[in-house]
Amino acid sequence: MVTHNWFYDGMLYIYALSLLFYFSDFVDRNRQAKRMGTGLLIFVWVLQTGFIVHRIISHLDMTLMTLFEYLLVFSWLLSTVSLVISRFFRIEFIVFFVNVIGFAVLTVNLFVFGSGASLEIWQLARELLVLHVILMICAYVAFTISVIFSGMYMFLHGRLKGKQWSKSMQRLPSLDVINRFMLGTTLVGTPLLMLSLAVAVTSILTEGRYGLLLDLKVIISVIALGLYIGIILKYRWFNGTGWKFAKWNLLCFTLMLVNLLINKVSSFHGWS
Question: Where do the structural domains in the chain lie, given as residue ranges?
Fold first, then answer.
């Protein structure tokens, strides 16, 4: 757990999982993912409601409400409004964007203003970095699998275009299947990278070491995230081809490898 408040931690993790499903629907119109995201969001709303009721009961004098309570209610209202919009108005994408803000508020509220957890600032920042590393490792796994599919796609596409048949081609799936898995694994890795960066930035802000925001690893990670989001949106919304997606996917992964190899010249992972 990130903090000693397991209830709040669990609420954040479920909220993050809900956003992952909404992100999948956002870029690929996946209705099953949207239903999963909505179900998890409703569960988060129930947890938020229970947490707020508990805070009210334990702090009956509401004139003593802190900024933590105000932001907690603000995040709860965002969740409530997004669920109402999703149920009665069905405006595409608004639920995703509203809850990105709601999740950010809920996270910053915990790590900056505190939820009653007894962690020291340095210890909290250190545990945030552990969570950042775990998320980043998962993102690297997804991107590695994705780039393997990209290599397979480029190999098979080149052979088919040049009419160079071989027995090895018979053991490969079709371009359509490869393309689907290549895109799917990228869709998994991108939000994981996004959450990892969000946690890393939160840890920097928690400690007040703002200079690390200009660290080379942070800058390259942000650029890589922007490129991944860019190639996904270009493919899904602007009729991009699988060949171009595979080529840009290789470039993005190369940038991620460079980011991994510059640990020795970066002070980010050793700052705490």
Answer: 6-119, 122-265
